[in-house]
Amino acid sequence: MSHKILITGGTGLVGSQLTELLLSKGYVVAHIGRSSRAGRLPSFVWDVEKGKFDLQALQGVDTIIHLAGAGVADTRWTEKRKKEILDSRIQSTALLFKILNEGNHSVKTFISASAIGYYGFGMGEEILSEESKPGTDFLAQVTKEWEQAVDKISSLDIRIVKIRIGIVLSEKGGALVEMAKPIRLGVGAVLGTGNQYMSWIHIEDLVELFAKAVLDSRMVGAYNGVTDWITNNNFTKLVAKTLRRPLLLPAIPAFVMKIIVGEMAVLILNGSKVSPSKIKQLGFEFKFDSLENALEDLLNKN
């Protein structure tokens, strides 16, 4: 019997690439989401707000990979949006706990997305490991509550892995695409002081990390899904260099960023040094361990 994996949030940036990788490794993959999608994969429906879940989705499933959650950087943080960001994570995880607690399944491993936002922002020069304490800002609170909801599942004799994802570099969306746009047009600039750290990972390495978590029974608990860190100033310069574009404009002041995106500016103006040493100790090797290689691969693919 081949290993079967059910993915929530499987059509997103990480989920779609992870699906392709798992299929290439010979896994059987199914998706569960808000609507059924016709396609080559089995696709099931859940309604988190109403607490509905198609139990057929769990048939023969060995591993659940939980990626579902409202996008943190998709839109301005109104009070309503902040509630959506929190509820989408807590309620979906609580529903999975409820269904798994009812039994009648073969799930042995539960792998959840988390985020380095757990540690808070603007931690300066402190190097953060999985043992570091959580922060106190909005995203840290969200991530902490999310992880607590995931941890409940370990009481069901299911192995739990939480991947605290950093800034995912991909040519298909996310931070890199947004940062590269103005630079390509010759209007790129450093953001704020430029001294804030960005802890990054190439999407290929991130999906390989999730794939490792499926089979490596030594992986239990939280792991930082990051490769390294760099200042926003140096990151911006490297993107410009890779694209062979000049950086002519002065840095965009913090107050301007706050006017443009509101409270969400913390994502851009603050950062932290997050260490990958725990996952490296388990023998995980990053294919793109230098930012130069990662950017060259992603920005000059054509």
Give structural notes.
By secondary structure, the chain is α/β, with parallel strands linked by helices. The protein has helices at 13-24, 79-101, 138-151, 175-184, 203-215, 232-243, 254-261, 266-269, 277-281, 291-299; strands at residues 4-8, 28-33, 43-47, 52-53, 63-66, 109-115, 127-128, 159-165, 167-169, 197-202, 221-225, 228-231, 273-274. It has a single domain (4-234, 259-299), classed as 3-Layer(aba) Sandwich (Rossmann fold), CATH 3.40.50.720. Helix content is 36%, strand content 19%. The strands form three sheets. The chain has an eight-stranded mixed sheet with strand order 4-3-2-1-5-6-8-11, with helices on both faces. Strands 9-10-12 form a three-stranded mixed sheet. Strand 9 (167-169), helix 4 (175-184) and strand 10 (197-202) form a beta-alpha-beta unit. Helix 6 crosses helix 10. The chain is globular and about 60 Å long. It starts with a strand and ends with a helix.
Summarize the structure.
The chain has 302 residues and is α/β, with parallel strands linked by helices.
Looking at the overall shape, the CATH architecture is 3-Layer(aba) Sandwich
Shape call:
globular
- Judged by helices, strands and strand pairing, the structural class is alpha/beta
The number of strands is 13
Percent helix:
25-40%
**How would you write the strand order of the largest sheet?**
4-3-2-1-5-6-8-11
Total helical elements: 10
Question: What's the number of domains?
Answer: 1
Distance between the termini: 40 Å
Summary keywords:
302 residues; alpha/beta; Rossmann fold; 8-stranded mixed sheet; 3-stranded mixed sheet; 13 strands
